[in-house]
Q: What sequence folds into this?
């Protein structure tokens, strides 16, 4: 039986998801490829966004992939860490901003 | 940080047979990854054949003032192999009789060969179209006797190609040694001062980017843009082109890959990025590499792996175009480095 939920070797097999549904798999990878091309944002900027989102999504595969991608693009570790803080700030802000909902509820229910 | 060559450290990997063993066994022997030979056979590109000679690459010695972590030459101050004037004479005779348009002097730090200037002066007379010297930059600032190198290069219209791993101090010093970044910046400014690298200048100054770790180089054009922007903004430095080069898994880079437990992953990345269209343009097909002792190789990498040319002519004194043209290139798994992504050669991407 598999002993861990995540195996780094699985990242290399990502392309295999198309095998069980070629059409949707192909459509996804085509879309994915297009998203990361240079556009109004550079591919470099997109790589940093992807790195931040990989962390907020807590996807170990994406973290590995976009850390390596960042290094390949010459992105510095300082830039990478700063991008992470943007993700972390949004994540903690998103948690805290729901505090308003809690406060509203308390104010409504409490005498 | 690396301070001594593998040879000085008496490392296992100083032995080229040991390197070739690593490259042939393990994941390649058990079939987990295809060998380079099998891979290029899929597109009927085996054997790789040498075409007409266009580039003569001469390694004038393994001595260097730096000991970079990724060095495929295993160069350093402790390496004493140096080309003699006699061998240089034999090279000059060949330079005069071939139609090769490019002469590429490399090392080590080629400038440290005591006959370097004499050789450049003599070779310059032969009317080569593109006369490249691979300068590590810091040599220009290493000692007073090298301070005039920018002027010397200018006088002979040398095309200067220099390594620069990154536009930040941290990454550069990590790969090439403490203080290398500051000295390189100073050297680049001095080259700029005599006219090298300026947008309209014929004095060519190109930079070479090698990744500082177990990953492949990014897109050459966008790396060049980033380098230009940062070096201009931070240090007012100009240069012409950036060559993004893949680190080949041999010598000190192989040692690093193994020590950092990245070897298998790196080989996977190379094989995964294999680009069949790069095969036809690998540099060994139009280059001849000559070692400090005059032996002939398909490329600088094969030279370091001590894999001589597959020809009856094995030494510069035996140079014979008819014998060398059309020879089968000697390959092993390190060749995946030349065919990954957009392909890699001494002049950057190929495909
Ligand atoms: S990479 Fe170049 S500068 Fe660095 S040690 Fe090797 S020959 Fe010298
Ligand atoms: S390593 Fe040398 S022989 Fe192999 S493909 Fe590259 S240039 Fe050719």
A:
């Amino acid at each position: 039986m598999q002993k861990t939920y995540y195996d780094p070797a699985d990242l290399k097999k990502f392309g295999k998801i198309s095998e069980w549904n070629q059409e949707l798999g192909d459509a996804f990878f085509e879309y994915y490829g297009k998203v990361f091309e240079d556009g109004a944002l550079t591919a470099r900027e997109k790589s940093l966004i992807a790195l931040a989102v990989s962390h907020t999504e807590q996807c170990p595969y994406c973290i590995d992939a976009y850390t390596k991608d960042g290094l390949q693009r010459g992105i510095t570790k300082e830039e990478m860490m700063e991008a992470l803080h943007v993700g972390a700030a949004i994540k903690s802000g998103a948690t805290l901003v729901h505090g308003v909902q809690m406060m509203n509820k308390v104010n409504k229910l409490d005498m | 940080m690396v301070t001594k060559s593998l040879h000085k450290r008496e490392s296992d990997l100083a032995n080229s047979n040991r390197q070739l063993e690593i490259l042939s066994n393990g994941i390649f022997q058990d079939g987990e990854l295809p060998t380079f030979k099998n891979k290029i056979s899929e597109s009927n590109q085996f054997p790789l054949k040498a075409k007409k000679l266009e580039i003569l690459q001469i390694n004038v010695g393994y001595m260097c003032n730096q000991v970079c972590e990724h060095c495929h030459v295993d160069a350093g101050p402790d390496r004493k192999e140096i080309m003699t004037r006699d061998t240089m004479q034999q090279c000059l005779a060949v330079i005069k009789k071939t139609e090769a348009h490019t002469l590429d002097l490399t090392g080590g730090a080629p400038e440290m060969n005591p006959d370097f200037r004499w050789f450049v002066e003599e070779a310059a007379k032969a009317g080569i179209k593109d006369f490249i010297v691979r300068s590590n930059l810091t040599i220009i600032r290493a000692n007073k006797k090298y301070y005039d190198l920018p002027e010397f290069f200018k006088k002979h219209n040398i095309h200067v190609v220099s390594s620069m791993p990154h536009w930040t101090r941290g990454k550069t010093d990590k790969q090439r040694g403490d203080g290398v970044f500051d000295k390189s910046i100073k050297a680049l400014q001095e080259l700029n001062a005599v006219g090298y690298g300026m947008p309209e200048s014929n004095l060519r100054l190109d930079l070479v980017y090698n990744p500082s770790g177990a990953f492949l180089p990014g897109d050459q054009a966008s790396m060049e843009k980033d380098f230009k922007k940062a070096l201009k903004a931070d240090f007012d430095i100009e240069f012409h082109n950036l060559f993004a080069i893949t680190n080949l898994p041999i010598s000190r880079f192989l040692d690093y890959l193994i020590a950092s437990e990245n070897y298998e992953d790196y080989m996977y990345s190379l094989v995964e990025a294999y680009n069949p269209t790069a095969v036809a343009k690998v540099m060994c097909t139009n280059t001849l590499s000559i070692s400090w002792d005059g032996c002939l190789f398909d490329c600088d990498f094969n030279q370091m792996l001590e894999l001589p040319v597959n020809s009856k002519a094995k030494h510069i004194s035996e140079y014979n175009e008819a014998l060398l043209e059309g020879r089968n290139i000697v390959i092993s798994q390190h060749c995946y480095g030349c065919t990954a992504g957009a392909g890699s050669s001494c002049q950057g991407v190929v495909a």
About this structure: The longest strand of chain B covers residues 130-135. DSSP finds 14 helices and eight strands in chain B. Residues B 64, 66-68, 71, 73, 75-76, 107-109, 136, 176 surround iron/sulfur cluster (ligand 1) (CB under 6 Å).
